[in-house]
Amino acid sequence: MFIKQVVIEGFKSYREQIATEDFSPKVNCVVGANGSGKTNFFHAIRFVLSDLFQNLRSEDRHALLHEGAGHPVLSAFVEIVFDNSDNRIPVDKEEVHLRRTIGLKKDEYFLDGKHITKTEVMNLLESAGFSRSNPYYVVQQGKIASLTLMKDSERLDLLKEIGGTRVYEERRRESLKIMQDTGNKRKQIIQVVQYLDERLKELDEEKEELRKYQHLDKQRKSLEYAIFSKEVQDAQQKLAEIEQARNKVSEISAKKYNEVLDAQEKSKDLENNLKDITKEHQNLIKEKEVIEKKRTTALKKRTELELDVKDLQGKISGNRHAKEEAAEQLAILENKIQGSMDELNNISPLYDNLVQKEKDITKGIMEREKKLSILYQKQGRATQFSSKAARDKWLQKETDDLERVLSTNTTQEKKLMEEIQRLNDEMRGCDENIQSRKANITTLESLIAKSRERFSDYKVERDSLQDKKKSLWSKENELTAEIDKLRAEVEKAEKNLDHAIPGDVRRGLNSVRKICKTQNISGVHGPIIELLNCDEKFFTAVEVTAGNSLFHVVVENDDKSTEIIKHLNQQKGGRVTFIPLNRVNAPRVTYPQSSDVIPLLKKLNFKHDYTPAFSQVFARTVICKNLDVASKVARTNGLDCITLEGDQVSKKGSMTGGFYDHRRSRLKFMNTIKQNADSIHVKEEELEKVKFEIQDIL
Q1: What is the gyration radius of the CA atoms in the chain, in angstroms?
Q2: Do residues 340 and 404 both lie within one domain?
Q3: In sequence order, what DSSP letters do the residues of 45-71 get, joined into one string?
Q4: Residue 354 is part of which domain span?
Q5: What element of type H or E holds 7?
Q6: Are residues 57 and 114 in the same domain?
Q7: Closest Cα partner for 634 from 689, 693, 591?
Q8: Greatest CA separation found in the chain?
Q9: Chain centroid offset of residue 62 CA
Q10: List of E strands, 22-127
């Protein structure tokens, strides 16, 4: 027997499937550069044949899988083909294929394509000479060098161990020990047999005594039965009497019990009424406080308005007095104007007379001058004046007199014109003053009318605002009561959800929230139960399918989960399973085309970014119409099936079902929390708007 061929796939540095050429039955040598996978090739052989890779933990399994670029490897296998022409392996075949497959959660053995247990593999290898007690059928790296450096005594021990003599000596010592133990047990058995013989004699004597006792006991029992029958008859009579009394008492107690139940119900109703009345009382107290505040504000505003009214009334009265004074001044001005007009009318005839007189005097002077000149002409210059100088002197004197009279008349005329101009200016000023006074009076009257209209409008607006304020107060109280009620329902749903979550998981989720908040860690999307949404009729199917996977936390990448796990270990904050989106790939599943089969994943609502996480949990499960359809689909398509009632059929053949308490549905609690939280948010926004409107009114 020898190893004919080795097939490796996904193991350490071997990603793709690699099969060696057929080995020689003599000596085979593996040659390659450093890092080409020689050591991993021998590890693959030991992975199948030796005990080196037994009882592996999760990280050990992960270390055996290929790690590199591209899609992660989820499973690996190593298959060794033995040449069994000498029938050293007890199988009627010339070639024996022994395969070991390992994944993140599985470790399986296959012999010629058939699944076998690990114990069967060990027995098969033992029969072929691969003994656990002699692990030198595979010479590890460095063993030859250590063998050359051994002492003679150590080398002798090694040869004994390889030759099997040590095993023989150990088994001989074990056999001698077993023989000694057997001799001791034989002596003990002889002693026990002697004791049993003595005991049998004692039992024979006791048997005879027992026969006598049984005979006497029968007589005693017959007497006791007679006495007992009589006592039973007396007891039955008394029991009948007691039963009658008990029935009467039971009827009375039933009535009392019903009365107590009625009283309890009434007390519960009264307690509920008391709670409602207490809430109403508290709301009324709050409303009263608000009304008192608003009343004081209204009183202040009323006082301010009254002061404004008084100011307006004072202004109106002042305007009236000003109007009266203006009217008086207007009358005085009109009187003055009338007097001025009368005076002007009186002066105008005098002025006209004086102007006429002036014209007549001027005309008379001119006529006289003409007559004088004529007379001078007649008389002659020689006869009138003694000399030319006397004549010129006389003429100059006459001219000066005439100019003096003319200047006097001109001055008087100027004065009269200035007086007339002044009176006209005064008339125009009085007219302008009258017009301005009339305009002021009209303006004041319009302002008074507008103030009265505005006052009435303010009064109407105040009444409407008071009505609006009352309606807003009532709406505010209603919204506050609804928000309190919704918060109470949210607290109740959160408590029920906490009771439905395992303790470690609940503590872990709370710790994750605290860690993300304190350490400011982003990229943590939350548990799956908070990220999904679906119709209520699918709640049972989703819960049964996911199980505790509902509380697996979806994170952006494995760095985030590693960081949070470190903090959880430091704080001892429970256990949480994380689903890194960068490490999870959505499985490719082919669903049957039938109206009785619906993929569960298609009935869930979630963000597209979370598709890999949800696919890992729900992609391999379909919803079936009933258990018959589920059994058929699981058998033919290799999918996990579930009904709307929560009955499961696994692709491996197992069936799980029974009653499911919908009242303790975790998705129902979460749905209640989400809906009430949204309602609280809407109500709080509406309440803020109402408060803002009330503040605007105040």
Answers
A1: 64
A2: yes
A3: HHHHHSSTT-S--HHHHHHHB---SSS
A4: 313-483
A5: strand 2-9
A6: yes
A7: 591
A8: 228
A9: 36
A10: 75-83, 95-103, 107-111, 114-116
Same domain (yes/no): 465, 577: no
Sign of CA dihedral 293, 294, 295, 300: positive
CA distance 679 to 482: 9
* Full-model pTM: 0.38
pLDDT given at position 133: 53
Q: In this structure, are residues 652 and 663 in contact, taking their beta carbons and an 8 Å threshold? A: no
Going by C-beta distance under 8 Å and a sequence separation of 6 or more, which residues neighbour residue 141? 39, 42
Looking at the structure, tell me whether residues 554 and 586 fall in a common domain: yes
How far is CA 589 from its chain centroid?
33
For residue 559, give the CATH number of its domain: 3.30.70.1620
Q: Are residues 508 and 476 in the same domain?
A: no
* C-alpha 694: how far from chain center: 29
Q: CA-to-CA distance for 199 and 125, rounded, in angstroms?
A: 54
If one counts every other C-beta atom within 10 angstroms of the C-beta of residue 514, the result is 13
User: Does residue 637 share a domain with residue 526?
Assistant: yes
Same domain as 474, residue 369: yes
Q: Within 13 Å and on the Cβ side, how many CA atoms surround 97? A: 13
Q: What is the CATH number of the domain that holds 27?
A: 3.40.50.300
Instruction: Tokens 């709080």: give the residue.
Output: 684
Which pLDDT tens digit goes with each residue over 532-555? 888 888 888 888 888 888 889 999
For the stretch 585-591, contacts whose Cβ atoms lie closer than 8 Å and that sit 24 or more positions apart, written own/partner, are 585/71, 585/72, 585/612, 586/611, 586/612, 586/615, 586/616, 586/619, 587/615, 587/616, 587/619, 587/620, 589/619, 589/620, 589/639, 590/637, 591/622, 591/637, 591/639
Is residue 520 located within the same domain as residue 465?
A: no
**Tokens found for residue 434:** 């009258």
Burial code of 531-546, b = ≥16 C-beta within 10 A, e = fewer? bbebeeebbbbbbbbb
Output the six-digit token pair for 376: 């001078």
Percent helix, strand and coil across the chain, each rounded to 5? 70, 10, 20
| Lowest pLDDT segment from 117-126, 175-184, 376-385 | 376-385
How distant, in Å, are the alpha carbons of 320, 459, 494 from that of 311? 14, 17, 63
Angle at 552 between CA 597 and CA 583, to 5 degrees: 85
What count of residues does the chain have? Answer: 698
Cα dist from 320 to 313, 332, 432, 441, 443, whole Å:
10, 18, 21, 9, 12
Distance CA 88, CA 93 (A): 10
Query: pLDDT for 44-56, tens place per residue?
Result: 888 888 767 777 7
